[in-house]
Amino acid sequence: MTQDEMKKAAAVKALEYIENDTIVGVGTGSTVNYFIDALATMKNKITGAVSSSEESSKRLIAHGIEVFDLNSIDVLDVYVDGADEITKHMSMIKGGGAALTREKIVAAVAKKFICIADDSKRVDVLGDFPLPVEVIPMARSYVARELVKLGGDPVYRQGVITDNGNVILDVYNLSIIDPIQLEVNINAIVGVVTNGLFANRGADILVLGTEANVQVIEN
Ligand code: 5RP
Predict the structure, then answer these.
(1) Which end is more exposed in the chain, N or C (fewer Cβ atoms within 10 Å of the end residue's Cβ)?
(2) Pick from 106, 39, 92: nearest CA to 219
């Protein structure tokens, strides 16, 4: 299977976790786009979706799937999203598509986080992929200096404004041995909205497209 075929196979498999008459939490990215397209095949069985980005909302609406405001939802059984990196402990780096904050919010509400990915995303240690950090624009330089103190090399993602009106710093060369603590430490920097480490709330299930098949790994 090609990388795109692995993404699609994982996305289609994730449909097995969607119950009738529920609202589905939907992430962002190319793997999730395959999931949204697959979800459209059962759109008459679900109530609708909560989305983590304007991009995903547009795609859901184009398929005729109703998108609900998260504030109007009490319970979200399942959140389906991709990852830029994921470990065997189900810690992830996310935010390659700059949607990390809304992704983290929807994931926090969901009972189950189902990560869909191709097997290039499996890593032993997080950090080869630069860690995205969403930052309030006026704090950009200050936050960058603080990230250098933590051992990283932050690079301003030029020309990108998040759905929340903020900017992204991509942090290179971090040695992420303790993702749970680093997630907390970076979020404690004033001006940081959130960072792309999903370790304190990692994935519950990984649906992984590999060359041979689709594997399901439970935490
Ligand atoms: C977007 C994300 C995506 O889930 C992540 O970047 C993976 O994307 P893709 O499925 O395109 O590889 O976190 O902010």
Answers:
(1) C
(2) 92
Q: 219 falls in which pLDDT band (50, 70, 90)?
A: confident
Confidence tier at 203 by pLDDT (50, 70, 90): very high
Percent of the chain with pLDDT over 70: 100
What's the whole-number mean pLDDT along residues 148-157? 98
- Token pair, residue 121, equals 């995303």
pLDDT exceeds cutoff 90 at 188: yes
Neighbouring CB atoms inside 10 A of 155's CB total: 13
Helix (H) or strand (E) holding 59: helix 54-62
SS3 content of the chain, % helix, strand, coil (to 5): 35, 30, 35
* Residue 115 CB contacts under 8 Å (≥ 6 apart), including other chains: 81, 82, 83, 86, 90, 92, 203, 205, 206, 207
Residue 4's alpha-carbon distances to 80, 193, 200, in angstroms, are 17, 31, 29
E strand residue ranges, 27-109 = 48-51, 76-81, 85-86, 92-93
User: Are 177 and 185 contacting, i.e. CB atoms less than 8 angstroms apart?
Assistant: no
The response to whether residue 55 sits with its C-beta less than 6 Å from ligand 1 reads: no
Of all atoms in ligand 1, which is nearest to the CA of residue 81? 4
DSSP secondary structure letter of residue 16: G
**Quick check: is 54 catalytic?**
no
* pLDDT value for 155: 98
